[in-house]
Specification:
The protein is an alpha+beta fold. It has one domain: Pnp Oxidase, Chain A. The chain has five helices and seven strands, in the order H-E-E-E-E-E-E-H-H-E-H-H. It has a seven-stranded antiparallel β-sheet. Strand 3 and strand 4 form a beta hairpin. Helix 4 packs antiparallel against helix 5. It is elongated. Pfam families: FMN_bind_2. GO terms for molecular function: peptidase activity. InterPro entries: Split_barrel_FMN-bd (IPR012349), TR_PAI2-type (IPR007396). This is Protease.
């Protein structure tokens, strides 16, 4: 991912927080010479060796997985809030732009066994059911329902490289920066307001 130095996020804790809060990603690889992508939850975890990895699962019917044996290199893309920024908000003539936050994770994928896949599924469900009034637990599902779990396989991604971008108008002076935040907040667009919030965190 091309990222000018000004917009690079090289703070490990900031990246971890982003990945945990924006874990619905895009898994990309090459299968039979063709690029493939699947939109799935991909969770940041720590393995038994204490190394950070990504975990997720795919349907066994998904042909994307056929490429993992011939080439285990994958890319996981995670996107956060984004918003159009009008140059009419500046005190000088310039071009419009787009502010956004994104993380690309490169690594090697491996398929895990069925027991590990179920454990991954339990952690995933527990995470997203935490605030439910009547939380579902994998342990409480019937044998019949759990047969559906046989239709998936879990995977782990050994992380080789992380590229993180926070493009938040860092190239603007304080006056224009504050005005961009103000204009974004006026839009009533959730994405724009989220970008305004992130900008406010970066410069007081």
């Amino acid at each position: 991912m091309y990222t000018p130095d000004l917009y690079k996020d090289e703070d490990p804790e900031s990246i971890r927080t982003f990945l945990r809060e924006n874990s619905f990603g895009i898994l990309i690889n090459q299968t039979h010479g063709k690029l493939c992508a699947t939109h799935i939850p991909i969770e940041l975890e720590v393995n038994a060796d204490g190394r950070e990895i990504l975990q997720g699962h795919l349907s066994k019917l998904n042909p994307q997985a056929e490429g993992f044996t011939e080439n285990d290199q994958v890319l996981a893309v995670f996107t956060g809030p984004h918003s159009y920024v009008s140059s009419s908000w500046y005190d000088h003539e310039n071009v419009p732009t787009w502010n956004y936050i994104a993380v690309h994770v490169y690594g090697r994928i491996k398929i895990v066994d069925e027991a590990t896949s179920i454990e991954q599924l339990k952690k995933l469900v527990d995470k997203y059911e935490a605030n439910s009034e009547n939380p579902v637990r994998v342990e409480n599902l019937s044998t019949k329902t759990m047969r559906e779990a046989r239709g998936i396989f879990g995977f782990e991604i050994e992380i080789n490289e992380i590229q993180a971008t926070k493009k938040l108008s860092q190239n603007r002076d304080d006056h224009n920066y504050k005005n961009i935040i103000s204009e974004l907040e006026k839009t009533e667009n959730p994405q724009s307001i989220a970008i305004a919030k992130e900008m406010s965190k970066c410069r007081k």
